[in-house]
Request: fold
Amino acid sequence: MYVRNLTDKPLELSIVVPTYMEAENIPELVEGIENALKGVSFELIIVDDNSPDGTATLAEKLNGKYGNIKVLRRPGKLGLGSAVLEGFREAKSDVLAVMDADLQHPSELLPQMYRKISEGCSLVVASRYVDGGGVEGWSLLRKIASLGAVKLAHLLLPKTRSVRDPMSGFFMLRRSVVDGVGLSSRGFKVLLEILVKGRCNSVVEVPYVFKPRRRGESKLNLKEILHYAFLLIKLRVKL
Reply:
């Protein structure tokens, strides 16, 4: 059994993955990240909202194999936004990444995103809406709703206009972008608040194709949509 020795070199990357009911996906997610980031010293922070399917327990067992997984157990379903911020607080690296556990964010994109950070970018966004990006398996209605949400963000929040996909849940940044910044996202669009409040001096987008979820259920619901609407209003009022 191989256990990664994190003392071999300084920690280069902290990946925060919020989870709820993702036990079916966690083994494949971890294996994919491990394969993608060979040669990079990283930690994987699983922030679990008390999943009844044993997501946290399974992640802890996987740490026995890899040795670089930290599991934060939360008492209930507190939401993706707060999970990301809690993961940031626990992270040990100066480079932070956020991705979903549902396998819709391709782990093979992580090395490219990390290279962009190493080259001096402060924020790298995995984007569905730049050349080479896209979505699969969405109905026309969902595509229209997603693009409408982006257009609304661009209209109300000028700082988001330089990013084609400010709604992305897959991104990487230097800690200095958010260090000392008062982030308070309750919903699932953390990037939006970072773009408005953070120190985003150099932002680049890299394309990816958002694929259909293979297992489990989507976390997008009316409550999250309302959180998004309230976040837009709150950020607009504070401009």
Summary: The CA atoms of residues 151 and 161 lie 9 Å apart. The first helix runs from residue 26 to 36. The two ends are 53 Å apart (CA to CA).
